[in-house]
Specification:
The chain is mainly alpha-helical and 191 residues long. The protein contains nine helices and no strands. Helix 1 packs across helix 9, helix 4 packs parallel to helix 6 and helix 5 packs antiparallel against helix 6. The radius of gyration is 18 Å and the shape is flat.
């Protein structure tokens, strides 16, 4: 669970920050003609947050020697993804983005349920483990949106949003005693 929390602790602010700052990011990096891709980028950032959880759970099943469950999960998740795509493709890219979020969440519950059957790190334990990090990331996301709302210049939105969001996330992680802040700090000082 420690590795899971560290990965979510790093990915959550990055992906939610990209989502919150997607408009200035897209306009400044690939010009205004790509502005229509912003909602899709935002949705994909939300969908990607739980992918590392799936990967770690798959790895746990491999380590436990439960490739039978792993095979069934992989096949089931692919079928689920195909069904979601069948329903969302006719409705366009945004529907596919929302479908991706639904798919990832359903796969998360499915995978963690079976992981819980072979280890002591089941669905409820994993959810309880990452909820505080996701809540902190959500607060950072809302703060960034509020701050950039009052700034007109795209470059300043990106700069100020990144600084305020990053500072808020790190400061709150320290204040609330998130142990991952020390793990990440240690990882950067290892070099």
């Amino acid at each position: 669970l420690r590795l899971l929390r560290i990965i979510i602790f790093i990915l959550c602010p990055v992906l939610l920050g990209i989502s919150a700052l997607s408009t200035p990011l897209v306009v400044l990096m690939i010009t205004e003609k790509w502005i229509e891709c912003v909602p899709l980028l935002q949705l994909l950032c939300f969908a990607i947050i739980l992918w590392p959880v799936q990967t770690l759970n798959f790895t746990m099943l491999k380590v436990k020697g439960r490739t039978d469950i792993l095979l069934r999960l992989n096949v089931g998740i692919k079928i689920l993804g195909f069904i979601v795509m069948c329903f969302t493709v006719p409705h366009g890219l945004l529907a596919i983005g929302y479908g991706s979020i639904v798919h990832v969440i359903m796969a998360f519950f499915w995978i963690t349920y079976y992981t819980g059957k072979v280890s002591n790190a089941g669905m409820i334990i994993q959810i309880k483990s990452i909820i505080p990090i996701l809540l902190l990331g959500g607060c950072m996301y809302i703060l960034i949106l509020i701050v950039i709302y009052f700034i007109k210049a795209m470059f300043l939105q990106l700069l100020v949003g990144t600084i305020v969001g990053g500072a808020f996330y790190i400061l709150m992680a320290y204040l609330f005693g998130f142990p991952e802040i020390h793990d990440v700090k240690y990882m950067f000082h290892m070099k």
